[in-house]
């Protein structure tokens, strides 16, 4: 169990204004519905306001406007950022002792920074470089000539094929595969001939890549994920795709070859995007959308095929009325025919 | 090849009534279309009845009502459960010799039951516990403090991060990742700040988890899969989700954060479910549906966005008539305008 | 950097007619938008023609009909196949030294061809066979009795469970799982009883399987992928499915149990196909389609539920007009009612 902290000290750490007893001890952070009297919880969305009224938490991190909960309050300008600070207080990152595990297999021509930690059975091939304070968990594979930047963390089972460059502070979750061959063939009349995939993958600083996500290498040139982009689990990023800065891609989305996703784009879950398409900066794509052509910067789109979200919502809202509409039109036809007949 | 069994002995083992020669030897189980005269096959769905008429199988497991096949019959109250017994007869589970492979890397502070089997290159971190007759195949990673219950089987390459609890008789297929960080960030105006994911994952007894499926840890609290739930391959279960007892989730379905799936729910393949939604007990969701709001208990829903299945089927059935309907309405407009003009 | 080649030598190697200086040295292949004066690029689709006009590449591989680029040209009958030759010239496959890495764990009863290469920490179980010039990268698991054919390559972290047969020249990318249990249960009134999955998986010659793709073993009989089929990343192929020869399956597509996909079929990304369905030879299925019933040979289908593509495109094109159509029909009703009233 995390060590206790006084509410007063927490208020100071978070830059929050406190309504409650500053000497009260808090022993941990918990969800609204599960927190007890010695725990702190939080209200970071309007969905949570109702549940907060009946929380058993000892204290809550809330916005300046929040009212009504039966416990101490820490009011913050940005409750979500405050919760991040709160979690860091109770769950500080522990120092990672450096070193190469004796079962790791490291090529003589690889370069491992002295402050890096290489776990059991990790493999680092010839010419690869592992930066300062980087961490490879067990069964991480780093292919020939690939680079892992300073402070990056690769969880168990990550595969980085040859010629892939990861920037600094990149986090890659278990099972992600960076640099598998792109999916390209030419049919010669009898069989599919494989187009050699000899390009690379570039992952810039501060990118996070989810578990079992796949980012293929380009045939020529690079597949690129720009700085600060966040990619969830089971996402497919095909060869020669570019993902822009600070773009967010939710789980199970797939992006086909050579498509360019702009900066600060948000792709919700299970979106599918055709090849050779451009999605402009700041666009927002709703879950399960199918994108078949360019999306302008700032656009919000949804549906299959994706269209402006406001219109698409009207269309999907109207669809259930279609069966009845068909009957109505048939009745109108009969009534109109009757009138026409009457009038000769 | 499995050892031969007499039809009479099989009838006894299955509690079936036999129509045929009890001394006939059966040497294996095979699909209807592939079984030969010394094999037994089965009819467990109405789809298979027609194919059964021309099977070359020596015998069939069928229902009480089945009629017409050209071979011996074993009639059973529940043919599907009988097939399970049949397969267990021909493919008995072999005893697994216990022991820790010399290449496994087990922390001094981990606890491994003497009857457990730990395969080559498996890693068990500090404070982890592996129960009786549990089996870890090669490259299975068990993080700090995680627990694997009695009789559980983790196939090659499963990753269980720190602080994850697996119950008894849990089966986890290769490449599944339990406890990777949930996908949560707060944008601070310049970049996405990672919300620490310090919660856990709880997998209860008798759960089965498919290959390359990902079940993320919660930010706070737990992601929970309740007893008897069955999860197929490539499924995404986000942070703080609850999956109810005996719920079945088919391949490539994704469930977003904090959503609660009830008991005995059936989610078909490629379903997408929004965050913070509740799907009631016994609900059935058709393949590729997109669920954006709560689903009542017992409801059957389909489509995007998901609606009651009976209505949705009508809507999807009517959609192909829409282009013609538009023409019909335009013609009606013209005819009506003509009438109106005539009448002044 | 690859060694330089003269344009003249490249033209000869590709069987191309050269328009330009045969002594010009080319040092590599790059995408149109990135190639410099000492690199060669290519125009293999009509989408690329416009971009080619402003390329900085020193030379281009183009079709016989292409015109207009500001550089040397290598004209070819089939530019895409020529690019494959070109990439092989600049990136020749290197010979792979045979041998079993000392950290690999190979059963005494396994058979490894002397020309095969077995990487660090690979596991080959009892009775398995690895063919000539096959290559297993680190952490590849080959289960009991499984077979890897001559010249096949299994990238890091591939799992091949027991009783799986891979043909010759099969390529399996990292994280793919072949032979995990199919997803089958029978509910006995209280819990889901697992149907034993004791069948196999057969992968024929020249198949390529993408990263983190899952191909389940059959309950009885086999799951089969026929020769020359190409399967992208994160694809789910359920138990007892058959994928035909030279069929192409794009990323994140899922095929449910016992479905049969014909030869030379093309399934685009994120397609979902029901169980027990047949997709005929040469069919083409658009991205995100949902297939619920048989698809005839040669058909082109799209949408949910999938219908003939030409019709479906009309329907999807008409859908945005539905909200307006409802208003139009309501207005028609009023006008018609007014007429009817006037006429008594």
Give the oligomer, counting copies of the same chain as homo and different chains as hetero. Answer: homotrimer
- What's the number of helices of chain A? 5
- What is the CATH C-level name of the largest domain in chain A? Mainly Beta
Helix content of chain A: 10-25%
Report the CATH superfamily of the largest domain in chain A: Hexapeptide repeat proteins
* Total domains of chain A: 2
Rounded to an integer in angstroms, the radius of gyration calculated over CA atoms of chain A is 27 Å
Tertiary shape of chain A: flat
Protein architecture, described:
Three copies of one chain form a homotrimer. Chain A contains five helices and 40 strands. The longest helix of chain A is centred in the last third of the chain and has 22 residues, at 322-343. In chain A, a hairpin with a 4-residue loop joins strand 39 and strand 40. The N and C termini of chain A lie far apart (89 Å). In chain A, strands 8-11-14-17-20-25-28-31-34-37-39-40 form a twelve-stranded mixed beta sheet, covered by helices on one side. In chain A, strands 9-12-15-18-21-26-29-32-35-38 form a ten-stranded parallel beta sheet, with no helix packed on it. Chain A has a nine-stranded parallel beta sheet with strand order 10-13-16-19-24-27-30-33-36, with no helix packed on it. With 344 residues, chain A is an alpha/beta fold. Chain A is flat, with a radius of gyration of 27 Å. Chain A folds into two domains: 5-90, MurE/MurF, N-terminal domain (Udp-n-acetylmuramoylalanyl-d-glutamate--2,6- Diaminopimelate Ligase, Chain: A, domain 1, 3-Layer(aba) Sandwich), CATH 3.40.1390; 99-311, Hexapeptide repeat proteins (UDP N-Acetylglucosamine Acyltransferase, domain 1, 3 Solenoid). Chains A and B meet through helix 3 and helix 5 of A and strand 22, strand 23, helix 4 and helix 5 of B.
């Amino acid at each position: 169990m995390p060590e206790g902290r006084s509410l007063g000290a927490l208020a100071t750490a978070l830059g929050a204004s406190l309504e409650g007893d500053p000497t009260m001890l808090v022993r941990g952070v918990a969800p609204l519905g599960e927190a007890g009297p010695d725990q702190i919880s939080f209200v970071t969305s309007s969905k949570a306001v109702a549940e907060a009224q009946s929380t058993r938490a000892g204290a809550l991190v809330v916005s300046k406007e929040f009212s009504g909960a039966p416990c101490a309050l820490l009011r913050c300008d940005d409750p979500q950022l405050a919760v991040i600070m709160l979690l860091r207080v109770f769950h500080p990152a522990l120092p990672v002792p450096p070193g190469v595990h004796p079962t790791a297999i490291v090529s003589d021509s690889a370069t491992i920074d002295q402050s890096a930690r290489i776990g059991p059975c990790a493999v680092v091939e010839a010419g690869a470089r592992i930066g300062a304070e980087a961490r490879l968990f067990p069964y991480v594979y780093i292919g020939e000539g690939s680079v892992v930047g300073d402070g990056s963390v690769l969880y168990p089972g990550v595969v980085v094929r040859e010629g892939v460059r990861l920037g600094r502070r990149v986090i890659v979750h278990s099972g992600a595969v960076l640099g598998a061959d792109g999916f390209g063939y030419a049919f010669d009349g009898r069989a599919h001939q494989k187009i050699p995939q000899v390009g690379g993958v570039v992952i810039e600083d501060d990118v996070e890549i989810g578990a079992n996500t796949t980012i293929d290498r380009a045939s020529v040139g690079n597949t690129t994920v720009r700085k600060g982009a966040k990619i969830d689990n089971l996402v497919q990023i095909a060869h020669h795709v570019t993902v822009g800065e600070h773009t967010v891609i939710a789980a199970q989305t797939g992006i086909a070859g050579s498509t360019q996703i702009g900066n600060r784009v948000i792709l919700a879950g299970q979106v599918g995007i055709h090849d050779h398409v451009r999605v402009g900066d700041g666009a927002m794509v709703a879950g399960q959308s199918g994108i078949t052509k360019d999306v302008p910067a700032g656009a919000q789109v949804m549906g299959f095929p994706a269209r402006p979200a406001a219109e698409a919502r009207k269309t999907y809202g109207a669809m259930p009325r279609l069966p009845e509409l068909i009957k109505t039109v048939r009745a109108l036809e009969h009534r109109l025919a009757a009138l026409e007949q009457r009038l000769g």
